[in-house]
């Protein structure tokens, strides 16, 4: 495998070990304040084993009842704990992501160092990556997943192997630094340290039943402190950092509503993924003619506006179950006068919150491109939520997550 040389990221001349100093300050909680908690993929697997799919994480950080484990990890048909794709809407498009880490009560998360051996560089600056004895690309990680300083966001630094040296003799950051090799900061990569006992969804290139296809990461093995560690490689380009190596967050909006007692309840329907910091009006980054969404998010709750509704026809049993606290938010059914409508066409619109649920009376209103007089006014993008929901109904939580996309606009996101 070869890493792209690319343009240097902002801040790449500052080597990532200094991030530990910033992290140490943030990890020291204010007296009486909740302690920062990091749930890695391994932690999530362990919780699934002890609490089952009915368990939850981050239930003390601003999201009613926390994040259900079954929305992150669940046993597959063979019983293997496997990461679960979660549906979201991004700029109006139906998409999905995996959740690999959850932080609570952390103000910030930092990039950490990853070192990759090279034998030199081509005339165009492309690195000549060396492979270890096992003939695998084998990065060296600067922080392990057992540390609260850990994050899956890595600052890649190439190091040149001296002539005649054995690449397999470099097995730790100490080996790299102490031997005085040439270093070249080179960019970023999302690599999740995860045990091989955790599965990832099988890649599905296309579907015909209305379900989303699935892309996702590849599995590989790296080194940390001399020991081999498995990881999931999600590639480059899904995050940025500032001069202090702090990862820039974007919002994921989670819908909430008040139940009959007036208490806020989380609605188990698709989230809405943003494109930039709250109220920044910044579009998604475009690479190769397609938007590239981030992988690092802060959860915000959004209270469903008065009069709004959710498209959840009888075929969407899962969406209706997710609205159990507020069944009045969906109508009895859409108008099915279009008898030629294939059932596979419905999932495109299921779970979307709309300001004018009267639009559900005619299926043709569901697709805004049809140009009907009562087209659905969806809240399925950051821009639509910020423009139509009162700021007081959008609440910042104390939850940060790693959620790389595995599907976008009905197509798989293949990484790397």
What are the main properties of this structure?
5 helices, eleven-stranded mixed β-sheet, 9% helix, 416 residues, mainly beta, 26 strands, disordered N terminus, elongated, seven-stranded mixed β-sheet
What is the end-to-end distance?
A: 10 Å
Tell me the radius of gyration.
23 Å
Rounded average pLDDT:
88
**β-strand number:** 26
Describe the 3D structure.
The protein is mainly β and 416 residues long. Helix content is 9%, strand content 30%. It has five helices and 26 strands. It has helices spanning 19-27, 41-51, 173-178, 317-322, 382-388; strands at 37-39, 56-57, 67-68, 73-75, 81-83, 86-90, 93-97, 101-104, 112-121, 127-129, 140-141, 153-160, 183-193, 218-224, 227-233, 250-258, 264-266, 271-273, 285-287, 290-292, 296-303, 309-310, 353-354, 394-402, 405-408, 411-412. The strands form six sheets. Strands 1, 6, 7, 8, 16, 17, 18, 21, 24, 25 and 26 form an eleven-stranded mixed beta sheet that branches. Strands 9, 10, 11, 12, 13, 14 and 15 form a seven-stranded mixed beta sheet that branches. It is elongated, with a radius of gyration of 23 Å.
């Amino acid at each position: 495998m070869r890493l792209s040389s690319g343009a240097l990221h902002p801040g790449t001349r500052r080597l990532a070990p200094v991030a530990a100093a910033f992290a140490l300050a943030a990890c020291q909680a204010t007296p009486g304040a909740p302690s920062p908690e990091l749930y890695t993929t391994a932690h999530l697997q362990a919780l699934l084993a002890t609490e089952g799919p009915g368990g939850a994480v981050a239930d003390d950080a601003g999201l009613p009842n926390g994040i259900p484990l079954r929305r992150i990890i669940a046993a597959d048909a063979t019983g293997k704990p496997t990461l679960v794709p979660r549906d979201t809407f991004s700029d109006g498009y139906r998409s999905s992501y995996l959740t690999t880490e959850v932080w609570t009560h952390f103000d910030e998360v930092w990039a950490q160092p990853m070192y990759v051996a090279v034998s030199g560089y081509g005339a165009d600056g492309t690195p000549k990556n060396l492979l270890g004895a096992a003939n695998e690309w084998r990065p060296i990680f600067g922080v392990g997943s057992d540390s609260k300083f850990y994050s899956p966001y890595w600052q890649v630094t190439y190091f040149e192997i001296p002539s005649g040296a054995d690449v397999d003799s470099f097995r730790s950051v100490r080996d790299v630094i102490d031997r005085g090799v040439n270093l070249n900061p080179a960019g970023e990569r999302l690599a999740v340290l995860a045990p091989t006992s955790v599965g990832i969804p099988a890649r599905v290139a296309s579907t015909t039943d209305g379900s989303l296809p699935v892309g996702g990461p590849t599995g590989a093995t790296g080194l940390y402190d001399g020991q081999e560690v498995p990881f999931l490689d999600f590639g480059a380009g899904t995050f940025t950092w500032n001069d202090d190596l702090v990862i820039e967050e974007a919002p994921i909006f989670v819908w909430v509503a008040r139940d009959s007692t007036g208490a806020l309840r989380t609605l188990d329907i698709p989230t809405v993924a943003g494109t930039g910091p709250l109220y920044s009006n910044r579009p998604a980054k475009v690479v190769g003619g397609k938007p590239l969404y981030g992988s690092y998010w802060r959860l915000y709750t959004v209270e469903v506006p008065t009069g709004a509704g959710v498209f959840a026809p009888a075929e969407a049993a899962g969406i209706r179950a997710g609205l159990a606290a507020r069944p009045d938010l969906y109508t009895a059914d859409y108008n099915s006068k279009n008898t030629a409508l294939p059932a596979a066409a419905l999932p495109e619109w299921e779970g979307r919150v709309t300001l004018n649920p009267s639009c559900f009376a005619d299926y043709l209103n569901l697709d805004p491109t049809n140009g009907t007089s009562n087209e659905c006014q969806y809240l399925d993008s950051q821009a639509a939520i910020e423009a139509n929901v009162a700021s007081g109904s959008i609440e910042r939580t104390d939850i940060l997550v790693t959620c790389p996309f595995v599907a976008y606009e009905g197509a798989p996101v293949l990484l790397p």
